[in-house]
Amino acid sequence: MKKPSVALVLGDPAGIGPELVAKVLAQPAMRELANVIIIADRHELEKGMTIAGQRFDYEEITASADIHFTPGKPLLLNHDWSKRTPFAYGNASEQSGVYILETLARAVELTQQGITQGVCFAPLNKQAMHMGGLQHRDELHWFAELLKWDHFCCEVNVVDNLWAGRATSHIPFRDIVPNLSVEGIVDTIALMDRTLRQAGIAQPKIAVQALNPHGGENGLFGDEEQTIIKPAMAKAKQQGIDVYGPYPADTTYKAVETQQLDAVVSMYHDQFATALKMLGFERGITVQGGLPIPIATANHGTAYNLYGQNLATPSAFENAFRLLVRMASSAA
């Protein structure tokens, strides 16, 4: 299999992102997995290595036309970002938001051009991004706009070999039921099936969660299982997708464990994400599911309170990098 090329972004320089990048790429085995183009301000990359107390060699380039890979040696595409005022290290700021948006946009552009086959970014902060000009509720839908992608997409979380997606995401709790539909749940199930196949799982087995306590008890505690969720599962089965459930939220993980299921589709943001993060917060990955290019990151935030202290654990970001490489390999 051809080695993929990956665009890598520091995330928010005011958080632990540069430190994580330094700790992951300081490992020779990680650098050998892919041809890596780091899109970053050189000063922030160097600062991350200083904080981490770990270094790796890289070759600096100024334009994509200069790309020539040496095995195990990342390239640094030094990004001369537009708002050159000091970062508010340890805090969300407009400066960080502008930097995040510009470097991510450049990474997406490289992948659209076929120079790279995927994007891996260190943790970012939505507040900073909104301060820097983000108009969307999250980065996923901003990515879709950059890619001119108007098909269904949703955030996918991964811990170890267990994947999770959701039919509704970053909306108020009171808006969950009005936003549930047969079509939306089918789209989520189908997206999960495609994403797992892209990651190398030949026949994904997908659990679907109920919405109401005890799965609604045949309508006693709510009828969304009968009117929305089960019809959606039936349609997914007609598409050849292997689905199970719907399982009550409090017993879903037991069903996954007993039946060795690969993924869970939940009805709202925290329904299964809470269990998943308890299972392995320090190992979790987020995939921007449904997009035409693979994009992944660690399933945790910028940890502003840890900035500059060399306390950041790189395991989740390392897992994200490994998974992104695996997904990018299919496009290489």
Automatic annotation (TrEMBL):
Question: Record's superkingdom?
Answer: Bacteria
Tell me which SUPFAM superfamilies the record gives: Isocitrate/Isopropylmalate dehydrogenase-like
Q: Does this UniProt record's set of keywords contain Nucleus? A: no
InterPro entries tied to this protein: PdxA_fam
Entry's transmembrane regions: none
Q: Name one GO molecular function term.
A: 4-hydroxythreonine-4-phosphate dehydrogenase activity
What EC number(s) would the UniProt record show? 1.1.1.262
Q: Which UniProt keywords apply?
A: Metal-binding, NAD, Oxidoreductase
The EC category is: oxidoreductase
Matching PANTHER family: 4-HYDROXYTHREONINE-4-PHOSPHATE DEHYDROGENASE, 4-HYDROXYTHREONINE-4-PHOSPHATE DEHYDROGENASE 2-RELATED
Protein name, UniProt field: 4-hydroxythreonine-4-phosphate dehydrogenase PdxA
> What organism does this protein naturally occur in?
Pantoea nemavictus
